[in-house]
Recover the amino acids of this structure.
């Protein structure tokens, strides 16, 4: 029983770690990209407010290659290594770029609770939130 419990709590911990990574990556997109690639505007046909939309991409094709940050147009754009420089204006900070990169490298899961408006602990049930 004790073993089962520790396996369970390990699983829950790693799920939370993944979700944290996802929340950090997607939060940068929300803050820096959704204004032009979100519900109100889809510049070059691209929306970045869902995993499906990022995978589908815009006029140039997929913006996201899960597990491969370097191949992802999002990263090429924020690193400004190709023809695109996103967002227009000041470059993202290294920390912001790293947050998106590690999220994509880990498979680009969409967070279960996206965005700063819904902090993770506000919506996760007491059983999962307090088990660790
Ligand atoms: C102020 C508006 C604006 C913001 C903010 C913005 N973009 Fe863009 N984005 C554009 C415009 C305009 C284009 C089309 C540029 C072109 O075709 O040359 C574009 C195109 C793109 C494309 C290519 C889409 C395609 O398939 O043609 C990618 C990828 C992209 N943006 C990523 C991002 C990312 C990632 C962010 C946030 C870090 C971001 N953009 C923020 C305006 C914006």
């Amino acid at each position: 029983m004790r073993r089962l419990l520790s396996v369970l709590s390990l699983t829950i911990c790693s799920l939370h770690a993944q979700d944290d990574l996802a929340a950090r990556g997607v939060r940068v997109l929300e803050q820096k990209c959704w204004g032009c690639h979100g519900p109100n505007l889809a510049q070059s046909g691209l929306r970045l407010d869902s995993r499906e939309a990022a995978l589908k991409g815009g006029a140039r094709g997929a913006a996201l290659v899960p597990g491969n940050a370097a191949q992802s147009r999002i990263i090429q754009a924020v690193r400004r290594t190709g023809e695109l420089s996103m967002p227009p204006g000041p470059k993202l900070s290294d920390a912001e770029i790293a947050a998106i990169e590690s999220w994509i490298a880990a498979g680009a899961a969409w967070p279960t609770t996206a965005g700063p408006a819904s902090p993770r602990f506000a919506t996760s049930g007491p059983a999962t939130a307090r088990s660790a």
DSSP finds six helices and no strands in the chain.
